[in-house]
Amino acid sequence: MELEIEIAMDLGTANTRIFHNDKMVVDEPSVVALERNSNRMIALGGKARSIQGKVHSNIKFIRPLREGVVAQYADSELLVHGLIKKAVPELSQSSIKMVVSIPSGCTEVEIQALRHVCEKSGVQKVFMLYGPQAAAIGIGIDVENPKGCMIVDIGGGITDIAVISLGGIVASKTIKMGGDSFTNDVIKHMKRRHGIVVSEHTAEFVKNDLGIVRSDVGQSEDYTVHGIDYNSSRKEVTVTLEEIALCVEKTVSHIEDVIIEVLEEISPELYQDLIESGIWLTGGGSLLRGLDKRFSDKFGIEFHVVDEPLYTVVHGTSLALKNLDKYAFLMK
């Protein structure tokens, strides 16, 4: 008799997380390493990330998801199948039932593309749940309650913003901007201002350590960065909190503009709900130091960074899977 196994997946542009039996069994970068000539997979996930920048030119590195949706079918199948197999080694002998989170701005075509990838990867039953709804469930919010709640999920490739009431999404915006945008801002700044090329890994350290909030500049923090200059020589420079705050300002301001757009779409009654309960920040981007304070000051509404924001969506997806009958009306 075939064994049915249930898994919950947060399939992100930057990272993929899988829950099985109430445990995180996969937490890996959404990247695959392929041989250029044959397209044979060399490595995926964390192993692929660990060899990036250290191999010959016949190996390419692909992030097959872009802005939270499938960008390349074949490579997405390799990634999803490989990560599911890590979660469930007995994949070929099992029937898989899975709930996977999707951006709230997904089109029907994008939803069907992801469904196709999951089914080709060996999943028999695929249910899809919008990320902000999954996040709300993960936080512990009763999504069927008429009292409105707002989620701002700053992931790697996208920021998903939604107001939820009575189980439905009242207003939402998904923008192609997230934690990767902050990292790229730092990379561009280091090249333009200091004349050095830094790795994505280094840029992430700078971003996370120095924060983004202009009001924190008085702390007089700085950071030593190692990179490669135009002569291909190693170079060491010192950067300050103020300059990193300035270099990501455009991205942060754009996210603020989109939050305003969503707030302008809701009723005064729902707006009052948000004033009373606050707005929830989740995703890796919410960990940027001072972001919650900046948003709270700008909007006059308390922004709360959730506990373990990296795992809120996958935790909510797992809870939805365990209570599929209760949340069936949310599934796509």
Describe the 3D structure.
The protein is 39% helix and 30% strand. The model has no long low-confidence stretch (mean pLDDT 90). A hairpin with a 2-residue loop joins strand 12 (159-165) and strand 13 (168-175). It has helices spanning 45-51, 73-87, 108-120, 131-139, 179-194, 200-210, 241-247, 249-265, 268-277, 291-299, 312-322, 324-327; strands spanning 3-11, 15-20, 23-29, 32-35, 41-44, 59-62, 65-66, 69-70, 94-102, 123-130, 149-154, 159-165, 168-175, 196-197, 222-229, 234-240, 279-282, 303-305. It has 332 residues and is of the alpha+beta class. The chain starts with a strand and ends in a 5-residue tail after the last helix. The strands form five sheets. A five-stranded mixed β-sheet has the order 3-2-1-9-10, with helices on both faces. Strands 13-12-11-17-18 form a five-stranded mixed β-sheet, sandwiched between helices. The chain is flat. The chain is built from twelve helices and 18 strands. It has three domains: 3-134 and 313-330, ATPase, nucleotide binding domain (Nucleotidyltransferase, domain 5); 142-177 and 252-309, 2-Layer Sandwich (Nucleotidyltransferase, domain 5); 179-247, Actin, Chain A, domain 4.
